[in-house]
């Protein structure tokens, strides 16, 4: 759309004129531009310039001669004039001082208004009077003077406004008021103008159809000025249809009369198409911007059908194709700029009169390029037919006053006139102008590039490739072989994938010529070989296809010609016909050529290599057979000078030489140590396998793989093919659907079915024993020693290496993935390899190369036959986990010999040595009241609560969970590493019982130890520390291990009441004793307590049974009972129940606390030697635990 003028590409914008007060023009113009819709301004500094908008006759310049009576359809500058020179509203700006000044100033105002009215009345321009007043003197103008001003200007009162520029608020109001008035009057002006022209249309007050078309255009433009898009679209359509009627009338005149009173035939057709293009552009723009895509496409289809056949005379039909190309280009750009979208699935059946491509810009870009190519071809024909000579008269031909017309500008001294030109002069002018333009190929390539990109965005690969093909051909025609080759190369992958042989033939022909022109021998040979190996059937060769490029139509004759030509180049032979056309394509000692063919190369059809070992596993130094098979689809036999077969073990490489071409083969390429085989001839026939079988020996163990087969043809040309296995060989994509005999690469069907290009060479049998010793399961925390012993029986050990790997039995790592993400510390490992101990006499640093957390590499010293060497692996388990220990020994039996490997594995169980548990208890027959126990459910899982300043009992158990006896050295409670030392010392006191000697724990046995805990401070949480257990295996060589387990935190509470039961440790039948229940109140509150005592048949008792009492603050209350036992044995004391009213808590002693043993008679106790027994020793005492 860039070739259209701006006034046509953009919607019309209202134009207003402001006269006077030049200092305010910038402010007013800026505000009007920001309005919606915007308003353009024509600023005149003073009233002497108002002649610019006057309707006075222009100078008679650039006018048609008076002898020519008929005018054109549309004036070229009419729209530009209304957008830049004919305002809808004119505003006269006067200063307030001019109105309130002396008579001379008022007279000047009246004169300026009269002149302005005269100019405005001629064009029906609306008038606005603006009085510029200062803020401080806005009331200086009298009402009489304002009335006189309105009468003089002949305008309504609302169109005489005051403008105050020196106050921000008043300035904004003035600008808004001025903008509203301009918008209102502009709409009125354009509506009146449109009605005036439309009245002529309705009354048909015009002399010819040209005026009908012109009036429709004017009414539509006036409707666009006032944003009435529906009216504008309707009038554009009426004008288009009127123009179509005009075309039919002209055609009738030419048929009936043979001539016309208007322009000559060619120029008349050019004018009609230009006007039709203008109307079509406006209609399409309005439809697309209104979201009516379907209607716009229908309209374009109708427009194309109406004018596509109006080509005109043959000598100027290139103008028609250029015009038609521009229609498609402009519509594609309009489709791209529109924001509306529509899916083709939403269309009705009636709307689908054409393909779905019409909804995409790429379709129109492609056709625009196609029509432009037609225009290019027509220009070449016209130039060849019509002689073009330098004519100075053509330089004076310029566009006329009307759209689509041209005339000769004659300079007559002080003036100039337009002279009509004939069709012959116009044809010559068009051809000369076409020659001065840039080449059409550039525009064609740009259009095809846009179409290609649009198709790519739409995921339409085939349509995009077609545009790329046209673009590459256009580059080729312009001799831009680099870009042409670039685009042709991109097309070949799609054509190979789709199997389009004919199209691939054409593209490869172009690529071959591009490579020839660019002097690229490698590309030329590659493309030529691929073309020669394409599947060309005899049927297709009998069909002569058009436009197949420089290679011609695909045929067997052309294929054989290309084959002969390319092998003449690589063999450095000369062909008399082609020597001059090679353009520097040479293969010689200065320019050797090497091609590589991999598994996905298109040149697999040229040379396909298959390699198969007859055995999958072989012994070292033992011969095995290998079959080499070669296949080619080239049309003629190919003789190969030399074949080189390469392996991953270079010692196995060997060369096969053609005996008939021994002199021409490049013997210099043969390594002096390589094995050379000679055959009578190496010749490949079309679609026939060439099979060669040889034996080979491998001296190194491991994988033996055939990697490449290099075929040398001539002294300086070679093809390197990747070796393929018969079992895994893929088909040739372009040949798999052809009717041809498919033979197997090998004669043996078993090898053809399962043969591989790789075999495994076994290692020699090791003659060294690798022994792993194990001392049972490993225990968490200990340094587990595993002895490893090497004994040489038949081989000496040189350059020995011992590799150690610790692997989880499930195949995962020794560190969990979540732990691996958050920490790299060795503490998070399950198992860790600490080191390797190689004996006291050896320096460990010399033998151990590298030890990591789960991997170790140890050097083994030289061992003679019969020697042995041992080491100990030091492994530590941090958590219980079974692991697999893999140990691999690699050594050389002699200097320079290949290494021999021995692999051993051992599963080791990592187990927990001891399980530590604990239990907290209160003192015997002493029960403090803890309020948290009243609110906590038994299964709540909350921390244990201990009373403050009361001694509690902590029992720690240690159970042997292993299958081996353990020697328990000590058990203690230490401070937790996380807890500061000062905190534990000041909050509680922990004491243990009597330390015992180291004890033996057999499997399953439990060890217990009692500790006392007395919290000394009233804190909310108490950290008890951790249990430290020192142990070792039950043999002297084992090392001591420390196992730690943290104790959970406990809550501390202050008990308000403490209940203590006191009675003798035993009693005698019939002898009374005293039973006390002490209630201790530790609060500063008076505590109400209820108590009751249940009767017992085993005792006679005296004392209070059921009552309520009060315990004073910080004191105690004692319940005393006298009991006489009536039977002997273990008896239950009368059950005492005590209830605190304040806390709603009851107390009942446990069964153990209420049990006492009664002897039938008074027992006799033996005293210690040297100590006398006294009755006081038998007095009952309180037992704390």
Automatic annotation (TrEMBL):
Task: Name the lineage.
Answer: Eukaryota, Viridiplantae, Streptophyta, Embryophyta, Tracheophyta
Q: What PANTHER family does the record tag this protein with?
A: FOIE GRAS, TRAFFICKING PROTEIN PARTICLE COMPLEX SUBUNIT 11
Name the domain of life.
Answer: Eukaryota
Q: Which Pfam families match?
A: Foie-gras_1
Give the residue ranges for region: Disordered. Answer: 1164-1185
List residues of the Trafficking protein particle complex subunit domain: 268-533
Query: What is the protein name for this chain?
Result: Trafficking protein particle complex subunit 11 domain-containing protein
């Amino acid at each position: 759309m860039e070739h259209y003028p701006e006034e046509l590409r953009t919607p019309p914008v209202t134009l207003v004129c402001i006269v006077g007060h030049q200092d305010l023009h910038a402010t007013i113009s800026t505000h009007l531009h920001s309005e919606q819709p915007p308003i353009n301004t024509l600023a005149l500094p003073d009233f002497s310039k108002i002649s610019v908008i006057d309707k006075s006759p222009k100078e008679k310049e650039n006018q048609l001669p008076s002898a020519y009576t008929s005018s054109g359809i549309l004036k070229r500058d009419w729209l530009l004039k209304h957008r830049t020179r004919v305002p809808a509203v004119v505003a006269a700006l006067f200063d307030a001082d001019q109105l309130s000044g002396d008579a001379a100033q008022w007279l000047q105002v009246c004169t300026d208004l009269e002149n302005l009215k005269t100019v405005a009345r001629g064009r029906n321009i609306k008038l606005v009077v603006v009085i510029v007043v200062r803020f401080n003197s806005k009331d200086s103008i009298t009402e009489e003077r304002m009335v006189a001003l309105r009468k003089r200007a002949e305008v309504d009162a609302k169109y005489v406004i005051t403008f105050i520029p020196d106050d921000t608020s008043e300035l904004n109001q003035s600008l808004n008021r001025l903008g509203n008035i301009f918008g209102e009057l502009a709409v009125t002006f354009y509506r009146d103008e449109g009605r005036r022209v439309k009245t002529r249309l309705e009354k048909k007050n015009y002399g010819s159809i040209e005026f009908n078309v012109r009036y429709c255009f004017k009414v539509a433009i006036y409707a666009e000025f006032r944003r009435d898009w529906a009216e504008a679209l309707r009038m554009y359509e009426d004008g288009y249809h009127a123009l179509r009627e005009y075309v039919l009338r002209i055609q009738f005149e030419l048929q009936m009369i043979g001539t016309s009173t208007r322009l000559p035939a060619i120029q008349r057709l050019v004018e009609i198409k230009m006007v039709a293009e203008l109307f079509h552009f406006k209609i399409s723009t309005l439809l697309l911007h209104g979201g009516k895509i379907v209607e716009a496409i229908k309209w374009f289809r109708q427009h194309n059908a109406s004018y596509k056949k109006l080509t005109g005379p043959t000598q100027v039909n290139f103008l028609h194709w250029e015009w038609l190309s521009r229609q498609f280009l402009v519509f594609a750009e309009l489709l791209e700029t529109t924001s509306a979208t529509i899916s083709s699935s939403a269309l009705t059946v009636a709307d689908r009169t054409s393909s779905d491509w019409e909804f995409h810009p790429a379709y129109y870009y492609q056709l625009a390029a196609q029509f432009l190519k037609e225009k290019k071809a027509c220009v070449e024909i016209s130039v060849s037919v019509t002689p073009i000579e330098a004519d100075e008269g053509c330089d004076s031909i310029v566009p006329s006053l009307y759209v689509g017309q041209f005339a000769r500008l004659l300079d007559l001294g002080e003036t100039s006139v337009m002279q009509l030109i004939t069709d012959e002069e116009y044809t010559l002018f068009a051809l000369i102008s076409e020659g001065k333009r840039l080449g059409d190929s550039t525009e064609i390539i740009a259009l095809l590039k846009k179409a290609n990109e649009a198709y790519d965005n739409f995921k339409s690969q085939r349509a995009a490739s077609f545009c790329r093909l046209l673009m590459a051909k256009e580059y080729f025609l312009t001799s831009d072989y680099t870009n042409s080759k670039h685009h042709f190369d991109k097309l070949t992958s799609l054509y190979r994938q789709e199997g389009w042989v004919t199209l691939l033939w054409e593209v490869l022909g172009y690529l071959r010529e591009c490579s020839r022109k660019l002097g690229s021998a490698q590309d030329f040979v590659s493309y030529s070989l691929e073309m020669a190996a394409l599947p060309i059937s005899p049927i297709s060769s009998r069909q002569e296809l058009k436009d197949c490029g420089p290679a011609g139509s695909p045929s067997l004759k052309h294929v054989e010609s290309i084959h002969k030509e390319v092998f003449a180049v690589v063999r450095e032979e000369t062909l008399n016909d082609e020597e001059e056309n090679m353009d520097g394509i040479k293969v010689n000692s200065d320019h050797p050529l090497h091609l590589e063919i991999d598994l996905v190369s298109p040149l697999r059809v040229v040379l396909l290599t298959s390699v198969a070992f007859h055995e999958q596993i072989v012994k070292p130094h033992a011969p095995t057979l290998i079959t080499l098979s070669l296949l080619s689809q080239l049309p003629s036999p190919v003789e190969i000078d030399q074949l080189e077969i390469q392996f991953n073990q270079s010692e196995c490489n060997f060369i096969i030489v053609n005996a008939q071409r021994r002199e021409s083969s490049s013997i210099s390429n043969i390594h002096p140590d390589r094995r050379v085989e000679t055959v009578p001839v190496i010749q490949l026939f079309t679609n026939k396998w060439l099979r060669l079988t040889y034996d080979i020996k491998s001296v190194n163990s491991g994988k033996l793989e055939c990697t490449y087969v290099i075929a040398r043809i001539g002294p300086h040309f070679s093809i390197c093919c990747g070796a393929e296995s018969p079992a895994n060989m893929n088909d040739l994509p372009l040949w798999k659907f052809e009717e041809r005999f498919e033979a197997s690469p090998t004669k043996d069907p078993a090898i053809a079915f399962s043969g591989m290009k790789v075999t495994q060479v076994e290692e020699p049998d090791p003659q060294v024993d690798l022994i792993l010793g194990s001392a049972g399961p490993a225990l968490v925390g200990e340094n587990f020693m595993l002895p490893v012993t090497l004994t040489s029986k038949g081989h000496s050990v040189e350059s020995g290496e011992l590799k150690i790997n610790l692997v989880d039995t499930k195949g995962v790592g020794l560190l969990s993935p979540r732990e691996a993400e958050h920490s790299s510390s060795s503490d998070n490992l399950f198992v860790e390899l600490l080191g390797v101990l190689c004996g006291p006499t050896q320096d460990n640093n010399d033998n151990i190369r590298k030890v990591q957390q789960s991997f170790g590499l140890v050097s083994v010293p030289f061992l003679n036959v019969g020697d042995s060497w041992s080491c100990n692996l030091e492994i530590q388990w941090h958590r219980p986990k079974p692991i697999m220990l893999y140990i691999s020994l690699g050594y050389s039996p002699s200097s320079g010999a290949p290494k021999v490997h021995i692999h051993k594995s051992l599963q080791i169980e990592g187990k927990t040595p001891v399980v530590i548990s604990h239990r907290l208890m209160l003192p015997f027959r002493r029960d403090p009241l803890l309020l948290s126990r009243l609110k906590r459910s038994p299964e709540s899982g909350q921390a244990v609560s201990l009373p403050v300043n009361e001694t509690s009992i902590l029992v720690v158990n240690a159970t042997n969970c292993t299958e081996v006896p353990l020697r328990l050295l000590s058990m203690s409670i230490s401070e937790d590493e996380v807890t500061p030392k000062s905190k534990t010392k000041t909050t509680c006191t922990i004491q243990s019982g009597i330390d015992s000697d180291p004890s033996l724990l057999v499997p399953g046995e439990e060890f217990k130890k009692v500790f006392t805990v007395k919290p000394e401070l009233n804190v909310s949480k108490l950290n008890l520390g951790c249990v430290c257990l020192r142990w070792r295996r039950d043999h002297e060589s084992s090392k001591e291990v420390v196992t730690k387990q943290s104790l959970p935190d406990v809550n501390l509470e202050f008990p308000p009441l403490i209940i203590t039961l006191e009675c003798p440790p035993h009693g005698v039948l019939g002898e009374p004793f005293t039973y006390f229940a002490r209630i201790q109140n530790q609060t500063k509150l008076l505590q109400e307590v209820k108590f009751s005592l249940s009767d017992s048949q085993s005792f006679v008792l005296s004392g209070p049974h059921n009552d309520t009492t009060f315990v004073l603050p910080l004191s105690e209350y004692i319940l005393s009972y006298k009991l006489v036992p009536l039977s002997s044995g273990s008896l239950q004391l009368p059950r005492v129940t005590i209830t605190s009213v304040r806390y709603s808590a009851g107390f009942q002693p446990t069964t153990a606390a209420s049990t006492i043993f009664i002897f039938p008679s008074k027992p006799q106790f033996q005293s210690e030697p040297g100590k006398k027994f006294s009755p006081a020793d038998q007095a009952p005492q309180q037992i704390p635990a």
